[in-house]
Design a protein that fits this description.
By secondary structure, this protein is of the alpha/beta class. The chain has 2 domains: about 1-250 and about 455-475, Aldehyde Dehydrogenase, Chain A, domain 1 (3-Layer(aba) Sandwich), CATH 3.40.605.10; about 250-435, Aldehyde Dehydrogenase, Chain A, domain 2, CATH 3.40.309.10. The longest helix has 19 residues, at about 95-115. The radius of gyration is 25 Å and the shape is globular. It has a 7-stranded mixed β-sheet, with helices on both faces. Strands 10-9-8-11-12-22 form a 6-stranded mixed β-sheet, sandwiched between helices. Strands 1-5-4 form a 3-stranded mixed β-sheet, covered by helices on one side. Strand 13, helix 10 (about 260-275) and strand 14 form a beta-alpha-beta unit. The protein contains 16 helices and 23 strands. Helix content is about 40%, strand content about 25%. The structure holds nicotinamide-adenine-dinucleotide. Nicotinamide-adenine-dinucleotide binds near residues 225, 248, 384, 451 and 455.
Length: about 500
Amino acid sequence: MRTVEHWIAGKAGPGTSTRTAPVWNPATGRQQAQVVLGTAADTAEAVRAAAAAFEEWSQASLSRRAKTLFAFRELVGARIGELAAVVSQEHGKVLSDARGEVERGLEVVEFACGIPHLLKGSYSDQASTDVDVLSFRQPLGVVAGITPFNFPVMVPMWMHPVAIACGNTFVLKPSERDPSASLLMAQLWQEAGLPDGVFNVVQGGKEVVDALLDDPGVAAVSFVGSTPVARYVHERGTAAGKRVQALGGAKNHAVVLPDADLDFASDHLVAAAFGSAGERCMAVSAAVAVGDVGDRLVDVVSAKAAAVTVGSGSDPASEMGPVITREARDRIAGYVGSGERQGARLTVDGRGLVVPGHEEGFFIGPSVLDHVTTTMDVYRDEIFGPVLSVLRAGTVEEAIALVNGNPYGNGTAVFTSSGAAARQFMRGVTVGMIGVNVPIPVPMAYYSFGGWKDSLFGQSRVHGPDGVDFYTRTKVVTSRWPGLGTPLAASYHFPTSS
Ligand code: NAD
């Protein structure tokens, strides 16, 4: 059985633990590897290695850092297929989707290639008489990233390219469910010429997370995962004096107005609800049908949902793969049943789906529940699976109120042909990322990604300008050079400008 190990100071190794977790192939239902579950001692070793590497890397010139980023960009670009295959095999998502995830991650690397420009400081000449003021940014030190199973390449790439480009060193704690991509990324960084110890990986679960949160050698923590863990990481990390950005779960609504192009909206709605088996933090899990569009929308969406081709991620014909574990499949099936019991109308039932040749795989087909209300569990909880709930609203104002009543605020979309309604929607919703006729409005790498409310704890979003802010501290220097210009006598009053 292959064992997925840690990567510390430029080498793979098993660390100190004897505990492992299975890594499944979700399409076959069989175990394909095991991952070591790191300990506090392994974590401390990685943090020490990263702290030692910080001495050199924090002093690396901007051009050296940019060259390393460019080399990493070339290597990732050349190995997209290999990275996508690793993702698909352990996560289950279809290969084209896995490729898309790597490409979106690569865009963050490309953003970070511009680090000399991004780190430019500012300078005010003659801020006061013969006094100049300048500001510049410096890295924080050792920073950690803790990431979820659903994007094993892209989500870590929201973090490490920017952190490393800013001069920090990095410890990644990937998801224990699909850990192999992290090691491939580590090898690519090494091939790109990144000094050993700048990028480290500690495999494992809560023990490693807690060790990172408590370690005084870790300056900042970036977390992406479910809301309860995000809240916990934010509380424990900030209590330990660290900078923390913690992105949580989601319940993303797509609001369909009566003037929307129904065919276009339903195509996009179905792809956004069932792509990656609904295991995306930006997946649409609630559709809000406004006015008289409801019955027509449900008919079209149900027909399209029932026609989704579900199969192994490696089969090019598959549009949707399995979910991550057997437990996840059973939990999702449980929600479909609870929706029905609580009064929703099940128009498409994905339970019991069997993919020929993959009878043991963790498959569940798309499900659609109509007439869902805000008190039902299917609506209140993040299901994180291929289940679309349809709610009804009388007006756009009612739809906006419904979206805003939800505790999550990650993404939302409106389908309409009215610019005025779209503007009202985007200005009115308490959500961080909004799509207008775009169901999954993931910002480009040069913007920042992050939601509102229970979808983000801490102020800082990931990548883009917020990423650079998060991974640096600013110094402001006020200077004068006696001997030049007009001499100024010292005074005992608080300095004022003149
Ligand atoms: P998760 O919260 O279970 O795990 C995330 C990370 O935290 C993993 O590395 C895991 O090992 C660790 N972890 C799990 N339980 C822990 C605990 N009790 N204490 C300390 N660490 C713990 O999330 P997941 O199931 O891997 O991923 C799915 C979730 O991530 C969904 O809720 C999804 O919405 C969310 N997500 C959010 C975003 C976003 O940008 N907001 C992006 C991707 C995924």
